[in-house]
Amino acid sequence: MDIHRLSLSDVTRRVKSGALSAVRVTEAMLERIARLDPDYGAYVVVLADRALERAHGLDAAMARGGAPGSLQGAPIALKDLLTTKGIPTTCGTTVLADWRPEEDATVVERLEAAGAIVLGKVKLTEGAYGEHHPSVAPPINPWKANRWTGVSSSGSGVAVAAGLAHGAIGTDTGGSIRFPSAACGLVGIKPTYGRVSRHGVFPLAESLDHVGPMTRTVEDAARMLGVMAGHDFRDSTSLDEPVPTYTTALLQGRLDGTRIGIDWSYVTEDVDDLVVQTVRDALDVLTGLGAETVEIRMPDHTVLTDNWVITCGVDCARAHAATYPARKDEYGPALASLIDTGLAAPAGAYERLEEERARFRAGFDDVLHDIDAMIAPCLPTPITDAERAPPSAADAPRQRFIRFTAPFDYAGHPSITLPLDVDAHGLPRAFQLIGRHLGEAGLVGIGGAFERAAGFEYATLA
Questions:
Q1: How many angstroms separate the Cα of 3 from the Cα of each of 21, 27, 450?
Q2: Catalytic residue status for 79
Q3: pLDDT in tens, 376-409
Q4: How many Å apart are CA 417 and CA 202, to the nearest integer?
Q5: Which candidate in 9, 156, 176, 392 is catalytic?
Q6: Phi, psi at residue 79, to the nearest 5°?
């Protein structure tokens, strides 16, 4: 049995039933990582002994009659900015290379309490910004080695797409769940801001950061999100709202009565024709399931996308105040530039963007009032060559690049990234659906129906 080919949900079902043991699953995944990760470079550290000890413990508890968790035996990877007690949390930097936190992040606690097995911690761009530290070799896209892997949650995307983990945690501040999910052919959920605790997640920009799952199926993402979501008193921005059973939304077979909004000018203006066609093809699948297409008008977002680097930079400078500028020479050029931008931001600029954030959020809430979700690309171009990865500097190409992602980080609306198929170059085509605040269950329902109809397959999993 090729355990790495099973979905995360299939693994948990088989472990619960006794058809597989957590130990067998973990041993198979660790063997695969040892054999293939030298080629893909997804992991910062593999926690083999810890993972096996945990697997033995889970199997022993079940043998004693203990109730299995909803993620029983699921092998996952953590983006290396989630704190892990006694285990280095580098955040993709050299300045934090020796940091060994004293506690686990809330998300880590919840995943392990549900029976997940952490295989290791995976790479991210420095500080979760736009480029890897010069000393770090970026992960390799398993679909095509010369193609981009999608900014900060790159290690998470590569690990799951290459079958080196069944699920991983990503974070999204300007697009870093959606970009690597699209680049690696994954399902990624960026939840509502505050739906998942950020306690123990080293920030890029606290007012924009979202934490969510990246998986190979909608069910897997829904299962992980159900464990991760919920109020946490240790995070002042955490939402105290009930958490639905997201997997029940997958029972929806058709989409009759579902209204999908689209702003054609938003989707087509300065967007590659191949990307526009992806949206059209995805809409064809959705309408074939009974959904109705509704033309809408996206509120103006240009002030936010043009100045995202100010919000991100000011927040990032606060996060790194203990080490920057005191240890500036240890920082890579991209992250240093972002922090310098934040430190040099004009007086009042951050506050004016907060006012613009509130205006956009209210306007987009109005748009969503009469629809169930809005469809949009994740990227304005197909997946680029790795050496031509989108710029992180505060210039026009970057502003164009984040136009489909940053507005919804500002507004905090949830989104789900979905793969459609594989193009003529052997690369996944993907798009996203954006929903109402706390509307993740609706997105899961639409995404699950779409997934079954589209029938995307992971041909890279050798």
A1: 11, 10, 25
A2: yes
A3: 999 999 998 876 566 544 444 667 889 999 999 9
A4: 24
A5: 176
A6: -60, 135
Active-site choice (7, 9, 21, 79): 79
SS (H, E, C) 260-313: EEECHHHHHCCCCHHHHHHHHHHHHHHHHCCCEEEECCCCCCHHHHHHHHHHHH
pLDDT in tens, 332-365: 999 999 999 999 999 999 999 999 999 999 999 9
Respond yes or no: is residue 16 known to be catalytic: no
pLDDT number for residue 386: 75
Say how far apart CA 308 and CA 245 lie, in whole Å: 34
**Does the active-site annotation cover 123?**
no
DSSP annotation of 208? T
Whole-prediction pTM: 0.97
| Three-class DSSP category at 275 | helix
What pLDDT sits at residue 1? 80
Torsion of CA 406, 409, 413, 416, to 10 degrees: 70
Q: Which amino acid is at 423?
A: D
Cα gap 453→286, rounded to integer Å: 9
Place 8 in a pLDDT band, splitting at 50, 70 and 90: very high
3: its two tokens: 């355990």
Q: Catalytic: which of 152, 156, 392, 415?
A: 152
- Residue 360, SS3 per DSSP: helix
Non-local CB neighbours of 307 within 8 Å, separated by 6+ positions: 349, 353
User: Which domains does the chain show, CATH number per domain?
Assistant: 3-454 (3.90.1300.10)
